[in-house]
Amino acid sequence: MPRRLTGDRPHFAQWGCDPHWRSDMAENIAYAILGRIGKYLVDPIVLRLGYLFCFNNNIENLKDQVQKLETMRDGVQVQVDAARRNVEIVGNDVEEWMTSVDNIREVADRIILEKTEIQKGCLNLKSRYALSRKATKRTQVAVELRQDGKC
């Protein structure tokens, strides 16, 4: 039986245990909880602030993605025209994709027009936020359409 150093309580050093293991475990649990709280509180706030602070970048990203999408659409249009000249059937999915690209282009043009109107007036954070958010969402749609068009 191991020898006890003080009274009735065993000394942790006798068994090779760290006397601070409980506080280390509590710290780890606290950090895990705070990490989760930070993730659910800070990330959405940063995302929302990003719409305001990255307003011009979000609009430029939309322009770039729509330009790439239009280039891809022009290539598909050439192939569709060639297929029609050869009396081939063009699939409905191709027509729908081209219509979606046209719709994205129209929305992007409206967003760009709204940007110029916003920049002419006084600083309106609500309008900048809404327009930047819309541009970001439409950029994601444009990227998805480009990926669908590569298939």
What keywords describe this structure?
single chain; mainly alpha; 2 domains; Plant_NBS-LRR; 151 residues
- State the end-to-end distance: 74 Å
Contiguous helical run count: 4
Largest sheet: none
Query: What proportion of the residues is helical, as a percent range?
Result: over 70%
* Poorly predicted regions: none
Q: How much strand content do the residues show? A: under 5%
Total E-strand runs: 0
Task: Estimate the mean pLDDT confidence.
Answer: 84
Query: Which structural class do you get from the secondary structure elements?
Result: mainly alpha
Please state the CA-atom Rg, rounded to the nearest Å: 30 Å
Shape field? flat
**SSE run:** HHHH
How many domains is the backbone divided into?
2
Structure report:
This protein has 151 residues and is mainly alpha-helical. The protein has two domains: 18-53; 54-150, no CATH class. Helices cover 79% and strands 0% of the residues. It is built from four helices and no strands. Helix 1 packs across helix 4 (125-150). The longest helix has 33 residues, at 21-53. The protein starts with 20 loop residues before the first helix and ends with a helix. Residues 52-86 form a coiled coil. Keywords: Coiled coil, Plant defense.
Question: Can I get a quick summary?
Answer:
The chain is an all-alpha fold and 151 residues long. It has 4 helices and no strands.
